[in-house]
Design a protein that fits this description.
With about 150 residues, this protein is mainly β. The protein has a single domain, classed as Beta Barrel (Lipocalin), CATH 2.40.128. Helix content is about 10%, strand content about 50%. The chain is built from 1 helix and 9 strands. It has an 8-stranded antiparallel beta barrel with strand order 1-3-4-5-6-7-8-9.
Amino acid sequence: MRTSMPTVSLCSTLALATLIACTDATGIEPVNLEGTWTAEAMAMSNGTDIVDLIALGAAMTVTLNVDGTFSWLITEPGLEPATEDVAGTFFVSGTTLTLTEAPEGDSEDFHAVRDGDRLTLTVADLWDFDGDGALEAATLTIGLTR
């Protein structure tokens, strides 16, 4: 279960928006994603509140290989287990990056935008913004660099 965390100030919100505003209208080719990407920004938003996950101790590194395999190591503060190591395959179609875990076969579709060595991933998620124990609809945005 995710926990409620403090919201981010307007200045932090604007800085995050600047980091993730990169665009690539041509879509993404798998060969352009090859490498190790490190999260510089991770935020949950419900349209009103933004939670800065990096400030709370979250971390993420994802390695995308030209053969279509990936691995990631993600640390989510307050969750058990706190660190998750995942491997599997990925597929790109336009601006959709699909990560499929092995051997479970669970997959997640991210909206992906790449600008040089910056990659922004966005996906629907859940978060408890008001601390009442109920998860609410949210958008997870991850800004990565390699």
